[in-house]
Structure to design on (563 residues):
């Protein structure tokens, strides 16, 4: 399996670094959330507790901009520049091409997310007593959530020809899927009893609600299944959308 | 080796781009797929390479169907799409390395394969350059190298010389001639000299239909009654002359060729043997007068024009 997914992964991963996208992504990723964490929200110093909960609570919103920015070209660029014609006349299954691209994007997000590890390390040195179990869970949750965001944005990119369309479509869908959970908790009053079912549905489909437990340091099977299931569903949609191109 | 049967391809709900095309290509043949722009040549090639699926009909390569056995068929084929799309941000060598990996060439053999391609298409000077920095000619050569790196049995080249200058075209033909000794090659073009220089057999496609499928000699024999009149007229305005000449009956197609001195214009009219076009021409001058006319035997160019000018004749 490697001998086919591997070259795609390698090419995609290095193409992020051939352009400035990977550097911009990593630098902004370290800079913006940290700025928000330390200054705007008062963060760690205000709470006077060694926890990264607030930092991770921002993650679903940070991803709405960052991940579509990273993956907008996954298919839109291939279609726009015609390279898709090369790619799909190579003797390689479609799912392996998607998998190679997916793992490359996921690895880059992993590097960016992983690069924030200096916060807990620094905090450990200055404030001490960090709950490393909780930190581990938060990072695992962030990576699972990133996988789902990548799968969704890949599918959206496969529906478009232009990078900007791909970016706008992806971030709008992610914003909707993220905010629908926020609405249910922030505006409880707009859900009268008879609309209770809608609140449950919005909560269950929300990308951010399922991250709440991870950011508290708790792993629920339900949340893991949600992220993996949704990622696989959109992976499947991506395959179908690319397949339909052959018949159109 | 390649058998195309009743191939139909429709894009969306529009008119089919390919309408029931059937042909076979034997092992080791060099076949020219000829037709005007938009005739359906590229679509046929995209179906053979497995990039598109046919709406109806099938393509068999060595007895295998392109829909059921895409991976096996794709490993036998080397394909150069019309615009030779490539990952522009990659270095030439790195790109060829990527293609060799995806084509399953082992690490030990990959380097040799890349070096021999670089030598074959003369990429030595640009091997360490980024693809985006290359000229059109070099990009085509990189495209050709990537199509051949796995030593495929079949080479499918869509408009391989489009956008190249005359020197590059000569070089490209030389490379193809070298390859033609051991490969089955399908090349599409709308340039006739390409076919005459390269191909043993020609398949002419017009409006999505096959209008000829012969060796060039057979094609000339089949249409040996076709002729054309080469004539020069004198008059003031080319536009009004063209307008009047196009009304004259008896020709398949009338084309303005070039300006010959002051107020003289050379035309070509495609006719069949026994046509009274010349008689009509001589008796039909208004704002112009006939300077000279000569009936000549049709060559491949005129046959092609006749076969692809359906619906345009004014016989």
């Amino acid at each position: 399996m490697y001998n086919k997914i591997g070259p795609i992964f390698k090419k995609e991963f290095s193409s992020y670094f051939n352009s400035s996208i990977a550097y911009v992504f990593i630098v902004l990723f370290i800079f913006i959330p940290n700025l928000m964490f330390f200054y705007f929200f008062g963060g760690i110093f205000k709470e006077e507790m060694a926890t990264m909960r607030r930092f991770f609570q921002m993650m679903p919103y940070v991803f709405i901009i960052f991940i579509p920015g990273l993956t907008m070209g996954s298919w839109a660029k291939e279609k726009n520049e015609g390279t898709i014609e090369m790619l799909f006349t190579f003797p390689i299954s479609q799912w392996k091409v998607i998998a190679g691209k997916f793992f490359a994007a996921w690895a880059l997000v992993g590097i960016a997310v992983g690069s924030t590890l200096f916060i807990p390390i620094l905090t450990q040195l200055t404030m001490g007593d960090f709950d490393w179990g909780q930190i581990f869970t938060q990072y695992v949750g962030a990576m699972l959530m990133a996988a789902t965001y990548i799968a969704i944005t890949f599918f959206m990119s496969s529906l478009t020809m232009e990078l900007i369309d791909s970016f706008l479509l992806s971030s709008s869908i992610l914003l909707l899927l993220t905010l629908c959970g926020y609405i249910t908790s922030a505006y409880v009053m707009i859900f009268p009893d008879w609309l209770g079912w809608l609140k449950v549905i919005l909560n269950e489909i929300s990308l951010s609600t399922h991250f709440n437990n991870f950011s508290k340091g708790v792993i629920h099977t339900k949340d893991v299944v949600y992220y993996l299931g949704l990622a696989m569903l959109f992976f499947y949609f991506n395959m179908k959308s690319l397949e339909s191109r052959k018949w159109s | 080796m390649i058998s195309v049967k009743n191939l139909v391809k429709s894009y969306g709900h529009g008119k089919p781009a390919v309408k029931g095309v059937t042909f076979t290509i034997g092992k080791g043949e060099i076949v020219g797929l000829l037709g005007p722009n938009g005739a359906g040549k590229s679509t046929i090639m995209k179906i053979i390479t497995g990039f598109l699926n046919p709406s109806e009909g099938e393509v068999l390569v060595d007895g295998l169907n392109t829909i059921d056995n895409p991976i096996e068929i794709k490993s036998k084929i080397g394909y150069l799409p019309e615009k030779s799309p490539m990952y522009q941000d990659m270095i030439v060598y790195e790109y060829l390395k990527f293609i060799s990996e995806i084509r399953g060439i082992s690490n030990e053999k990959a380097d040799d394969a890349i070096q021999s391609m670089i030598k074959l298409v003369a990429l030595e000077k640009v091997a360490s350059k980024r693809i985006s920095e290359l000229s059109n000619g070099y990009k085509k050569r990189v495209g050709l190298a990537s199509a051949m790196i796995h030593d495929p049995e079949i080479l499918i080249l869509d408009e391989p010389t489009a956008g190249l200058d005359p020197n590059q075209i000569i070089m490209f033909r030389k490379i193809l001639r070298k390859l033609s000794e051991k490969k089955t090659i399908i090349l599409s073009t709308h340039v006739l000299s390409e076919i005459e220089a390269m191909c043993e057999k020609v398949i002419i496609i017009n409006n999505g239909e096959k209008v000829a499928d012969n060796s060039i000699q057979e094609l000339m024999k089949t249409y040996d009654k076709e002729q054309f009149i080469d004539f020069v007229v004198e008059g003031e305005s080319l536009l009004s002359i063209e307008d009047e000449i196009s009304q004259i009956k008896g020709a398949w197609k009338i084309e303005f060729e070039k300006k010959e001195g002051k107020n003289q214009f050379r035309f070509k009219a495609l006719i069949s043997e026994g046509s009274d076009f010349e008689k009509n021409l001589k008796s039909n001058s208004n704002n112009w007068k006939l300077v000279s006319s000569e009936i000549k035997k049709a060559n491949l160019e005129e046959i092609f024009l006749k076969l692809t000018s359906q619906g345009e004749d004014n016989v």
Observations:
- Chain A has a mean pLDDT of 86.
- The CA atoms of residues 80 and 161 of chain A lie 5 Å apart.
- The longest helix of chain A spans residues 132-158.
- Chain A touches chain B through 24 residues (CB under 8 Å).
